[in-house]
Amino acid sequence: MCQLLAMNCNVPTDIVFSFTGFALRGGSTDTHHDGWGIAFFEGAGVRHFVDHQAAVTSPIAELIKRYPIKSKNVIAHIRKATQGRVALENCHPFVRELWGRYWVFAHNGDLKHFFPVLDGAFRPVGDTDSERAFCFLLQELRARFGDVAPPLAQLRAALAELVSGIAAHGAFNLMLSDGSALFAHCSTRLCYVVRQYPFVTAQLSDEDLNVDFSQVTTPDDRVAIIVTEPLTTNERWTEFQPGELKVFVDGQPLP
Amino acid sequence: MCQLLAMNCNVPTDIVFSFTGFALRGGSTDTHHDGWGIAFFEGAGVRHFVDHQAAVTSPIAELIKRYPIKSKNVIAHIRKATQGRVALENCHPFVRELWGRYWVFAHNGDLKHFFPVLDGAFRPVGDTDSERAFCFLLQELRARFGDVAPPLAQLRAALAELVSGIAAHGAFNLMLSDGSALFAHCSTRLCYVVRQYPFVTAQLSDEDLNVDFSQVTTPDDRVAIIVTEPLTTNERWTEFQPGELKVFVDGQPLP
């Protein structure tokens, strides 16, 4: 199994603090050393970094810990291979374009006997169950809505149905974003925290590091962090229910 | 106009030396400071770095100059905006998937009145003529060959025809790769050099830096570098003919 991290905010925010703790699980405080990746939306564009080295030793992970890329939607993943070789093309997150937007996807879990019919519009480059699931999701969204993106409520309903069908094949914890909303589905384990005014000092669980968010934010900032295991020891993390799909917009889950 | 750099090799090779000279044109020895990008194939996977900062000041460009990523196919671009805002989504190279392979594309030139009919399979995320051309190329390749990639000779012939049609709209110097072959088309200016045994010491034009390739290669290595303007002062660069599409495989142009 792998670990997932995502961030959704109402203003572009850097993920340096949370990524620093998360990256340690890629070979130091945990055993996820079969690659890692992170994608940042910046406007309509995406910065996409993947590496098949362990996150703790990767020079690119080092850069991201030091270089504050500001984004409203970020998805990161550290990999412990279950299906698919240790290779760059199997590193999450995956990126595809649909409806003139980039979509970013990462998955934690293991889908058994999941070989959906793919019509060729989106085809996996690597050999993971995860990329197959991503290609299938986009294919089905396009089949339902044609060439025009639907309103968010319709998209959410369609994803809930599609994701629950895929989750019948096994654990399907996922993060998906088109740069405006962040979709997070929990099969087995996910939790989130919303950081907003009044901001506190947060203490990383994976390293002796803390940050006083009140010093680096404005009272209007709001940031949701969604992750496999809580990243800090002194914040209140909310657990997802198994089978739950949450949609985060502007730093908070939609009702 | 922008500048292009590509590398095609028979064994995975790092591009640190050539990129170091090239990146200086992104704001130092030349005026291409509206962003830059580079993509490296590694197996079937792609590492894709884009930045809307000038290449000379970008921390990510600095990383690439120091971190020897080895690849058989690399495409890089520094941008001087002609069409499209200075924004991440307008930075080349662009990446899409077709036939279960990633395709990487970068363009130097300016296409006038180029608004092809796009059927929705590949749609631009940004607002450049270049990304429109890339989407159109992939759409037409898929329309001709369906869901199965054709042999290289057929692909080359189709691309030659499609590219020449697009080039009727203006300058269309381009680099395109699917990770196995590198296609380079010249409208106005491109040149290349093949580095092979016996290797010499090369001297960068843009910086007082040289490298003795005989120290860092084996006699079997072969590397083609294709670029807008020659990068070195003491190698023999071959100019493309306007209208010429060359295909590089294993470090040399096909006949």
Automatic annotation (TrEMBL), chains A, B:
Keyword annotations: Glutamine amidotransferase, Transferase
UniProt-listed Pfam families: GATase_4 (PF13230)
InterPro entries, sorted: EgtC-like, GATase_2_dom, Ntn_hydrolases_N
Domain Glutamine amidotransferase type-2 as annotated: residue spans: 2-251
UniProt keyword Transferase, yes or no: yes
Alphabetized GO MF terms: transferase activity
Protein's UniProt name: Class II glutamine amidotransferase
Species of the source: Massilia psychrophila
